[in-house]
Amino acid sequence: MEHVGNISNLLSQPVMKLGNTGLTWWSLLYLAVLTIILLILTGKMQRFIVKQAKTRTNLDIGTTHGISTVVRYLMIGIGFLVILQSVGVDLSSLTIIAGAIGLGLTVGLQSLVSNIVSGVTLFTERPVKVGDRIEVDGTVGDITNITFRATTILTDENIEIIVPNSQFITKKVTNWSHSSPNIRLTIPVTVSYKSDPRQVKELIEDVARKHDGVLKDPRPELIFSGFGDSALRFDLWVWTCDFTRRPLVLKSNLYYEIFERLKAEGIEIPLPQRDIHIRTGVIATTEVAERPESPDASTV
Known about the structure:
single chain, 10 strands, three-stranded antiparallel sheet, alpha+beta, 300 residues, 8 helices, SH3 type barrels
């Protein structure tokens, strides 16, 4: 019992001060337990809000996620202030919060603060949202989660990449589905100079129109883009909604079908060709033979 009393006395000793309030080990333990409970409850509340919004409103998933995240952080902030007050911390002055922020900035938290401010910007201006197909700093994928500090992107390789929110403010961001899920793909095609361009246009546009993943409106269109070194160059423009997140799959499918159709019609897809001109000439070689010197004439 004596040891228990000693441990109890030790845990009751103040270990730090927060403002004018001394915090003991018991206070810190109490603070930690309540904070964990607060995080768990707010997480459950966020999931409940998302579930209710899906069934009772017409909000898209990005808007629902943004609203629920803001509500959760507000509840965490208010709940944490209540917890601090419950352990006796005086909240009448803002010097505690200001001091903590100042200390954080001095020890190198500028990047964290920048990411949080950028996160607030993402939630208010909403240039990107959960479910969008984006490209930022060379990374292409779908946004699966946005927090105040970072955004999670799921790539086509099923790899999750955590991108700091400041990247969305300072870097160029391409959003493929911001205002519409429809995107246009450009598919280059080359054929032999022996081919009839109008026949090629008719055949390839017919292939595109028959593909289920290609939208009928706007209609597919084959553009005659120019004359290459060894082939006629075309660009096939197709619009899609179903393959916004898998554009390479649609391109591959169309290439297969275009190849088979052109082959069946006897239209050649040429290999690169080069004309080589070889210069020929005769190199004349002149051999100069040295003659022996004639002996000196004798004098009579």
